[in-house]
Backbone:
């Protein structure tokens, strides 16, 4: 014996991926898992470093500092730090053609990579006081490490 459902809702034709996303959001919302624990409204802040044509924030720490990169009109990527108060500081290792700050920790140290004029990738650490510590690796060092 076949019985009809007690209630039904019309399903709008959509892709399977979108349907799963909608159902997942609905389930999480019902369980209260996508709302802030403090039930405060989320705040979105839009910003762009001066002279940027593209901005990519990559990491935010608990204090609200944001590290990322932006591209200028010549498509050169530069690193930036946006403090909680909105102050934006840009930085680049000397001779870099591409700066990629990947992560910022609680005290404000930023780790990332940059490319030199030959296109070789190197690492850097920017300390909270703005000093850059560079790790320049040679092709020989990379071969020894299996890269």
Residues:
């Amino acid at each position: 014996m076949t019985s009809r459902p007690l209630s039904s809702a019309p399903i709008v034709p959509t892709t399977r991926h979108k349907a799963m996303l909608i159902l997942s959001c609905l389930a999480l919302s019902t369980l209260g898992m996508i709302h802030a624990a403090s039930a405060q409204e989320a705040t979105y802040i839009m910003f762009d470093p001066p002279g940027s044509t593209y901005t990519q924030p990559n990491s935010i720490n608990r204090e609200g500092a944001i590290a990322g990169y932006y591209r200028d009109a010549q498509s050169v990527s530069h690193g930036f730090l946006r403090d909680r108060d909105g102050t934006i500081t840009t930085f680049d290792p000397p001779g870099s053609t591409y700066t990629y700050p990947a992560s910022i920790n609680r005290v404000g140290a930023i780790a990332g990579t940059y490319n030199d004029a030959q296109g070789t990738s190197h690492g850097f650490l920017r300390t909270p006081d703005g000093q850059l510590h560079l790790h320049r690796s040679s092709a020989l060092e990379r071969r020894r490490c299996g890269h």
Observations:
- The chain has two helices and eight strands.
- Residues 16-30 form the longest helix (15 residues).
